[in-house]
Design goal:
The protein is an alpha+beta fold. It has helices at about 15-20, 55-65, 70-80, 90-100, 105-120, 120-130, 135-155, 170-175, 180-185, 195-210, 220-230; strands at about 10-15, 30-35, 40-45, 50-55, 80-85. The chain has a five-stranded mixed sheet with strand order 3-4-2-1-5. The relative contact order is 0.11.
Length: about 230
């Protein structure tokens, strides 16, 4: 499938192939631990699409303790299959991920969630403005940004670990309830809604997310979010 990586101290298989859920066009996801650092490379090898990421041990370990990455990093390492691990480096990361708990991160996660919702107020502003001037292209872009970026924030809020992004919007919908799922479906254009209705769906998603995490916000964040919701008619 792949050639040797003589510069790597460890290589693991992650993703759908590691979980035994790969389909005919699933890519092979490899994480390398070593001195070479690159975030993502794609290549064709043996008739398959192979993605490789490489970084030193430290950043992989840090990802297990960062609110912005932990929801994907923890299950990713828990499910990892070592392919090359002569010094047990990958095994140590897998063991760390399997023994991981939310406890030490709780307060930092709440702060990250509150700031994430606040930062998306700008996208809500841009969407409302684009609708007002009938700029469909900008509105479509801002609608998509909200529909895509809100889900990881709400996943962290609900402390959801997801091994695959393919399931993210479904699991967040299940956690948030029917009104969220309906708004998310509209924002993603999954039904027969008119264009403006899909944009209103994205704005409703923002309102629901803001309401969900309201108790985590400080005064500055609350003022920003409150105005964005008012603009959106929420």
């Amino acid at each position: 499938m792949t050639g040797p990586m003589p510069w790597a101290d460890a290589v693991v298989l992650v993703g759908s192939h590691a979980r035994g859920e790969a389909g005919p066009e699933s890519d092979v996801d490899l994480l390398a631990v070593g001195p070479r650092k690159f975030s993502y490379r794609l290549q064709r090898r043996g008739g398959m699409l192979v993605s490789t990421s490489s970084r030193p041990l430290g950043p992989y370990r840090e990802a297990l303790g960062e609110p912005g990455s932990v929801c994907a990093a923890v299950p990713g390492w828990r499910e990892a299959v070592p392919l090359h691990d002569p010094e047990g480096i990958a095994a140590s990361l897998i063991e760390e991920a399997r023994g991981w708990s939310w406890g030490p991160l709780e307060r930092r996660c709440d702060a990250w969630v509150a700031e994430g919702i606040t930062s998306l107020a700008e996208e809500a502003h841009k969407l409302v403005a684009a609708l007002g001037r009938e700029d469909r292209q900008t509105a479509a872009i801002q609608r998509s940004i909200l529909a895509v970026r809100l889900a990881p924030i709400l996943a962290l809020h609900h402390r959801i670990l997801y091994g695959s992004e393919n399931a993210l919007w479904d699991v967040v919908g299940a956690a948030m309830g029917e009104e969220w799922s309906q708004a998310q479906s509209a924002a993603l254009g999954l039904g027969d809604e008119l264009f403006e209705e899909t944009c209103r769906g994205a704005l409703r998603l923002y309102g629901l997310a803001a309401e969900e995490v309201h108790h985590l916000s400080d005064g500055r964040q609350e003022r920003v979010v409150r105005h964005a919701r008012r603009l959106a008619g929420d």
